[in-house]
Amino acid sequence: MRISIIGPAYPLRGGIAHHVCWLQRELTRRGHDVQVLSFRKLYPRLLFPGTTELDTSQLKLDAGATPILTPLSPATWLRAFKLVKAFSPEVVVFEWWQPFFGPLVGTLTRWFRRSGVKCIVECHNVFPHEGSPLDRSLVKFALSRANYFVTHSTKDKDDLLAVVPGKKVSVVPLPSLDEFSNRSNAGRTGRTIIFFGKVRKYKGLSVLLAAMPKVLSKVKCKLIVVGEFYDPIDKYRNLVLEHGIANDVSLDNRYVPNEEVPSIFEQADVLVLPYVNASQSAVARIALSNGLPVIASRTGGLSEAVTENVNGLLFPPGDSDALAEQIVTYFTNNLGAVFSENIRKTHEPDMKSHLGAIIEELAGLSD
Questions:
Q1: What is the pLDDT of residues 226-256, one digit of tens each?
Q2: CB-based burial label for 343 (10 Å; 0-12, 13-18, 19+)
Q3: b or e along 115-150 (b: 16 or more beta carbons within 10 Å of the residue's beta carbon)?
Q4: Using 50, 70 and 90 to split pLDDT, how confident is the model at 315?
Q5: CA distances from residue 315 to 273, 275, 322 in whole angstroms, order as listed
Q6: Residue 356 domain-assigned?
Q7: Which of 13, 133, 142, 319 has the fewest beta carbons closer than 10 A?
Q8: What one-character DSSP code corresponds to residue 10?
C-alpha cells in the first residue's frame, strides 16, 4: 500500500514530529511505501512562545520528509496536493492538533476526497487546551470531510463525535519511540519527582508547587522541573520562593535534546502530571515505557493511561491538597518499587505496532 503522511517532521521539533518519525518507520516496517510531507514553518511568531521551531538534537529522528507547507500560504497547499497525487497513495494520514491548521487541513481533505483518495486524521488533540471562540468552526471545517479518525483517548473521541457525528473513530494509545526508552531495571526506590515537558498554564505546574510544602512536611524529597517555559518563568520562580521550597525544587528551562530523554527519566522515581485539563499525554507514555510510575490528575485521557494502584495514582485536577496526599502515600508506602514492577509485567510489547495495524484496517475499508 502507498501511504502519504502530512504533519510536522524533522527538522521541526516536538512530540508530533517525533511521532511522525515513529509512524513512518512503523508503516515502512509493515511493508508500505510511505511519503511524508511536512512544514517549512509551523507558526507565525505571534503564536509561538518558544525559542525555536527547529530540533538541534544530536539524535535526529528523521522521517525523510519533504518540507513544503506553510499554514497561511494556499500556494504551498496546492504544491503539496500535486506532490501527493504524483505519489498516487491509497490513503493520506493527517496529523491534527490545533485549529489554526483548520483551513489547510479542511481544504486538502476536500481536494483529496474529490480525487478519490481516502483521508485518515490522527487527532493528538481535537480542541486546543487554551482555546478561542473560533475553534469549533475551524475544527468542523477541517475534519468534516475526512473518511476515518484515530484518537488517543476516549475523551478525544467523544469531543470529535460531538463535532462530526457518525464518523468511524478508533481509539489507540500513543506509542513511544524506542530511542526514549531506557531498558534498565531501576527500582524507583528514591524520592525524586519529575515534571517534564513544555510548561504552560493548563499543565498545572502551579498546582504541584503548591502541593510541595505539604509533601515536604511529611517526607524528604526533591522536585526537578525539566522543559521549556512557555509561561513566564519568573511567575514560577516567585511561586517557589513564596512556598519556601527553593532548596528542594530545581527549574531547568530548556527544550531537552532527544538523546537526553532516557537519562532524565532514569534519575526520577515518579512522574507527576498535574494537568488542569488534558486529552492524552505522550510524556506519560514515555514514562511508562521507562518503567516509571505516574501520579496524574484525573482528567481527559490521563486516567486511561494511569491505572490506579497498578502503575500510578490519580487525584482530582487542580487539588493541590489531594496531590500532596498522593505523593506522600507514594513515598511512605514505597509504591515506586511495586508499580515499576507492575509496569514491567503488564507492558504490552505489541502496543507499538497497534496503531500501524489500525491505519492498515482503516485504509482498507470501503466507503
A1: 999 999 999 999 999 999 999 999 999 999 9
A2: buried
A3: eebbbbbbbbbbbeeeeeeebeebbebbbebbbbbb
A4: very high
A5: 10, 10, 6
A6: no
A7: 133
A8: T
The length of the chain in residues reads 367
Mean pLDDT of 70-97: 97
Per DSSP, helices labelled H in 115-220 are 135-143, 154-163, 205-216
Instruction: Please give the backbone phi and psi of residue 159, each rounded to the nearest 5 degrees, phi first.
Output: -60, -40
All cell numbers assigned to 119? 483521508
For residue 211, being part of any structural domain is answered with: yes
**Is the peptide bond prior to 11 cis by the omega test (within 30 degrees of 0)?**
yes
pLDDT digits (tens, 9 = 90+) for 179-230: 998 866 678 999 999 999 999 999 999 999 999 999 999 999 999 999 999 9
Which residue's C-alpha cell is 500535486? 82
3-class secondary structure, 354: helix
CA-CA distance, 356 to 232, in Å (whole number)? 39
Provide the pLDDT for residue 348.
Answer: 52
Same domain, 243 and 333: yes
Q: Residue 155 maps to which CATH number?
A: 3.40.50.2000
pLDDT category, 55, cuts 50, 70, 90? very high
| Domain hosting residue 211, numbered range | 179-346
Cross-strand bridge partners of residue 12: 54
User: Does residue 362 sit within a domain?
Assistant: no
Spell out a b/e string for 195-228, using b for 16 or more CB atoms within 10 Å of the CB, else e. bbbbbbeebbbbbbbbbbebbbeeeebbbbbbbb
User: Cell match 473518511: residue?
Assistant: 147
Work out the angle at residue 33's Cα, subtended by the Cα atoms of residues 116 and 16, and round it to the nearest 5 degrees.
85
Neighbours of 53 (CB within 10 A): 17
Domain co-membership, 149 together with 255? no
For residue 181, give every residue at least 6 positions away whose Cβ sits within 8 Å of its Cβ, in sequence order, or none: 262, 286, 289, 290
pLDDT at 44 > cutoff 90: no
Same domain, 166 and 199: no
Alpha helices, H only, the chain = 15-29, 74-87, 102-114, 135-143, 154-163, 205-216, 233-242, 261-266, 282-289, 302-305, 320-332, 335-346, 351-364
Q: How confident is the model at residue 292 (pLDDT cuts 50, 70, 90)?
A: very high
Where is the domain boundary, 171, 197, 231?
Answer: 171
